[in-house]
């Protein structure tokens, strides 16, 4: 934008214009301002102040020790009942049907297996079919919590079992499809498995 200034003979007008230009153009010398006054039009300069960007502080989460002290992942004894989590299992089955496009009889087993390996398993019913520790074999229940190295499972006897993934093979049945999870190759958090590429072929030892 331009500010048109009409010079007058009045000394007060000249003084006002001089003062105004000095404030508007602080980087100009007096000689430069006087030169500008000989013109009929003056382009006023604008100096914008640089805004300093404030660094956003990322919220810090709880440490593993703090989570243990706060008992965030503990299930109270009165809540450790199989019947309470049956609705969760029904929701999980519907989730898997939707994920696998209906689990039709002609569905390819390797496709179902691939989907299950990346799916959220909270609510799934699993059974330990093989183990290096015989006491784990036969444990069946609903997965309540999945951690990197263990499953927490509630059995029909209302017992909360902590079963390590390592050295165990788990079977998982959904609408007639039976899949197997080799725990030693499954030691990831649930949130990490969605980006993991699993090999569906080959021999996997306990």
TrEMBL record:
Name the principal localization, coarsely classed.
nucleus
Q: State its location(s).
A: Nucleus, Nucleolus
The cross-references to InterPro entries, in alphabetical order and at most eight, read: RNase_P/MRP_Rpp29-subunit (IPR016848), RNase_P/MRP_Rpp29_sf (IPR036980), Rof/RNase_P-like (IPR023534), Rpp29/RNP1 (IPR002730)
Similarity comment text for this entry: Belongs to the eukaryotic/archaeal RNase P protein component 1 family.
- Name of the protein in question: Ribonuclease P protein subunit p29
Q: Which SMART domains match?
A: POP4 (SM00538)
Q: Which residues form the signal peptide?
A: none
The gene from which this protein is expressed is: Pop4
Q: Which residues form a coiled coil?
A: none
């Amino acid at each position: 934008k331009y500010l048109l200034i009409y010079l007058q003979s009045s000394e007060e007008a000249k003084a006002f214009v001089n003062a105004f230009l000095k404030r508007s153009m602080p980087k100009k010398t007096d000689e430069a301002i006087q030169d500008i006054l000989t013109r009929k039009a003056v382009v006023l300069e604008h100096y914008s102040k640089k805004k300093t960007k404030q660094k956003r502080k990322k919220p810090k989460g709880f440490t593993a020790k703090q989570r243990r002290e706060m008992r965030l992942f503990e299930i109270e004894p009165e809540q450790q009942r199989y019947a309470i989590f049956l609705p969760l299992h029904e929701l999980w089955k519907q989730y898997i049907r939707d994920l696998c496009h209906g689990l039709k009889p002609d569905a390819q087993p390797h496709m179902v297996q691939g989907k299950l390996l990346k799916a959220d398993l909270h609510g799934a019913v699993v059974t330990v079919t093989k183990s290096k520790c015989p006491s784990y074999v036969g444990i069946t229940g609903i997965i309540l919590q999945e951690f990197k190295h263990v499953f927490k499972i509630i059995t029909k006897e209302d017992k909360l079992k902590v079963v390590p993934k390592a050295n165990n093979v788990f079977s998982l049945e959904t609408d007639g499809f039976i899949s197997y999870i080799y725990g030693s190759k499954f030691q990831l958090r649930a949130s990490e498995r969605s980006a993991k590429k699993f090999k569906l072929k080959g021999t996997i030892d306990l």
